[in-house]
Structure formats: structure tokens, C-alpha cells
């Protein structure tokens, strides 16, 4: 049995894909590190349909992340949350990288809405601290 087969066979809460609007109810897109310890839905109290969540190593403002954020904004989001965290395998200094990524996003020519982009660092002990 492959690990994927084991995952698919797990008892799970499979919520039907919403047929309602593609625009997330919160109007927010979240770019987060892919770290499996970060439960973005729990951290922000989200349910299905509430936000676009884009993930990569570090939660970094890469070209592909910007492409996804641009589509998110085309679908109706107007604010962006950038989520980094302590003890990240992808970035050595989360605060420094958060500031760098915020700068990249706020000046990204491919993003129509750059006026409300905020960054946070998730800390051990479940703290959420605004940075950048
Ligand atoms: Zn990470």
C-alpha cells in the first residue's frame, strides 16, 4: 500500500465542493508556508469557501505565488495575508524574509490590488505576530 493509498483510505471529513461563488467570503487571500504543522484554516478560524490559500516553501512571494494571487484578485479578493513562521525549513530568518516578501508583493506589477497586504509570523506557543 502506498502512502497515497493510505491517505485516500483514511476516514475523512470530505466536504462537497461548494457550488456557490468562487469569491472567498472573507475577500482575503493567504500566502502561507507549506509546513504541515501550520493549519491555516484553524489559525484564522476559516471554513471552506472563506479564503484562497496559496502555499509554498516558506510562504515566499515567488512568481508562481504572485500568479495565483493575481487570479485570486481577479476572482474578487482585495486583501492579502502573508504567513511565515518560526523554525521554518525554508527561510533562515522569518522576520527578514517576511519583510522582503512584503516588499515584493507590494510592488508586484502583476497584482491589481496592492494596498492591503499584511504579513504575520506564527510563533511557537500559537502566537500570531504582525511583522514587516
Ligand atoms: Zn516553513
Q: What order do the helices and strands follow? A: HEHEHEHEE
Number of strands: 5
The biggest sheet amounts to: 5 strands, mixed
Q: Numbering strands along the chain, what is their spatial order in the largest sheet?
A: 2-1-3-4-5
What class would the helix/strand composition place it in?
alpha/beta
Molecular shape? globular
Rg, Å, rounded: 15 Å
| Mean pLDDT level | 94
Small molecules bound: zinc ion
Strand content: 15-25%
Sequence stretches where pLDDT stays below 50 over 5 or more residues: none
Counting H and I runs of at least 4 residues, what is the number of helices? 4
Terminal Cα span: 45 Å
Structure commentary:
The model has no long low-confidence stretch (mean pLDDT 94). The protein has helices at residues 3-9, 40-43, 63-74, 94-106, and strands at residues 28-33, 51-56, 79-85, 117-123, 127-131. The chain has 132 residues and is an alpha/beta fold. 27% of the residues lie in helices and 23% in strands. Bound molecules: zinc ion. The site of zinc ion has 7 residues, from loops.
What's the quick description here?
This protein is an alpha/beta fold and 132 residues long. The protein has helices at residues 3-9, 40-43, 63-74, 94-106; strands at residues 28-33, 51-56, 79-85, 117-123, 127-131.
Kindly list the characteristics that best describe this protein.
132 residues; alpha/beta; single chain; 5 strands; binds zinc ion; five-stranded mixed sheet
Draw up the topology in text:
Elements: H1 3-9, E1 28-33, H2 40-43, E2 51-56, H3 63-74, E3 79-85, H4 94-106, E4 117-123, E5 127-131
Parallel strand pairs: 1-2, 1-3, 3-4
Antiparallel strand pairs: 4-5
The chain binds zinc ion.
Amino acid at each position: 500500500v502506498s502512502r497515497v493509498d493510505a491517505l485516500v483510505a483514511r476516514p475523512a471529513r470530505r466536504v462537497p465542493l461548494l457550488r456557490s461563488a468562487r469569491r472567498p467570503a472573507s475577500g482575503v487571500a493567504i500566502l502561507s508556508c507549506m509546513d504541515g504543522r501550520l493549519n491555516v484554516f484553524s489559525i484564522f478560524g476559516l471554513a471552506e469557501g472563506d479564503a484562497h490559500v496559496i502555499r509554498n516553501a516558506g510562504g515566499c512571494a515567488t512568481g508562481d505565488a504572485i500568479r495565483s494571487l493575481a487570479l485570486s484578485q481577479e476572482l474578487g479578493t482585495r486583501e492579502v495575508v502573508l504567513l511565515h513562521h518560526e523554525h521554518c525549513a525554508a527561510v533562515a530568518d522569518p522576520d527578514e524574509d517576511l519583510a522582503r516578501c512584503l516588499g515584493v508583493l507590494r510592488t508586484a506589477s502583476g497584482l491589481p490590488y496592492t494596498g492591503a497586504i499584511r504579513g504575520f509570523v506564527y510563533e511557537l506557543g500559537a502566537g500570531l505576530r504582525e511583522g514587516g
